[in-house]
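DM from R.C. (forwarded with permission)

"hey, sorry to bug you on a friday — could you get me a structure for this? deadline for the figure draft is monday and I only need the backbone to look sensible"
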Amino acid sequence: MNYKTFEDLPVWNAAIEFALGLFEFTAAVDFRGVGDLKNQIERAAVSISNNIAEGFERGTNNDLIYFLYISKGSAGECRSMLRICERSSKFSNFRSEISNLIMREESISKQLNGWIESLKNSDIKGVRYLNDGERAKIQQKREVDEFDQEIKAMVEKAAKEREEQRRTT
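My reply, with the result:
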């Protein structure tokens, strides 16, 4: 599926939901005595969605990959700080919330990784480079690939029918 805006991206929406859930957690917990942890984890959570957005808007796959890695790094930063909270007796009454946030962050990291890997394997350099000629080439390749798939499906179907005929005769 082609996404027109970063707001359409499932991983961006997951990152926003993660940040909102994290804000609820940090609002409910007393962070006095743990340094700047609250500020740092909130900034890292916001950084996840912001870097997805910035990379998407840059218009090149290289820039997008770069910012997705930054986003993935911010997600790891959040998970690390949540692990600190998880191990601290100060937050023992919030283990369930912390565990839920960690699971959500891990899902975001996996989505980012999958997207990064697909971009690395893409022949398209990014929307910034798409002109009418490039779009036509992409469309033609898509049509050829679809035709190839149809032919393969027809050949497989014919082979199965021949095999079935052999069995019944």
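R.C.: lifesaver. The first helix runs from residue 10 to 28.
me: no worries. The mean pLDDT is 89.
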